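Side project, low priority. Logging it here so it doesn't get lost.
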Amino acid sequence: MGLFLLALVPVASHVTDTPYLVSAMTRFVIYGLAAVSLDLVLGYGALVSFGHAMFFGLGGYVVAIVTFHAVEAGPLFGWPGTTSALVLWPLALACCALLGVVVGYLALRTSGVQFIMITLAFSQMVYFILVSLQVYGGDDGLMLSRRSELPGIDLNEPVSFYYLCLVLLAAWTFFCIRLVDSRFGMVLQALRQSERRAVNLGAAPIPYRLTAFVISAVGTGMAGILWANYAELVTPDMASWTKSGELMAIVILGGVGTLLGPIAGAAVFLGLEQALSAWTEHWMFIMGPVLVLVVLAGRNGLFGQWLRKRNGQARQ
């Protein structure tokens, strides 16, 4: 039902003569993709990653840098670069996966607060590296001189780009749902509930958690790729700890461990941000207490309880 309503957004935009609606919903869909990816490790693996924005930023920067060399700056390490999404996007995802392997391998040697601090430290390291890249704009970021090219789809056309983002969100969410319902997902959840019991049953924690972490990194990187093409600008803030905090707030708001909840959480969070920022520049002073009240009122967020009941009935 939700997917059907999202598919009708361009129609509603045309009927009501509000072209901005497509742009606003594209932003929501991209953040929803990142939130689903974070929920995979946060909700099902009990891995509180406070550095997932590094994958969001890396995905966007790989696209922007390679495009910059392909269009303006000349070869990059002897490679002329490309604007083809069929080459560029897998390359960006591979970089995110590689970073996910490195960060995950080191961070998963710890747990609890130490895990949070290591992911945060890596995220800040990526952030400061991006700030130091003066040739790519430094603090000001890098403009995307041309959107990626995908055969048969004009990414410069807002409706086409929106539908591409929506299809990727639906496909990624379906993949994550199938993953958590598989044997892999069951072991991951068993490790969350009782690591000692799962180990006694023969499950090795690190391979399962590392695999989930890398998959989550790839999904977040895909969101970063789409954001770079949407905003046509990448900045170091994409990898900052505040962006990681936003993603975590979205997941908590929608319902941790539900996958669909974070998508709804993205709509609520971004909707509130849009409404409050139009009212006052100090909108975070209002958003903060709202998030605190949601956490205090229910551990399952705004939609978690309802989604869990719905999933339980569906499985019966």
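Brief comment: The longest helix spans residues 205-231.
Revisit when time allows.
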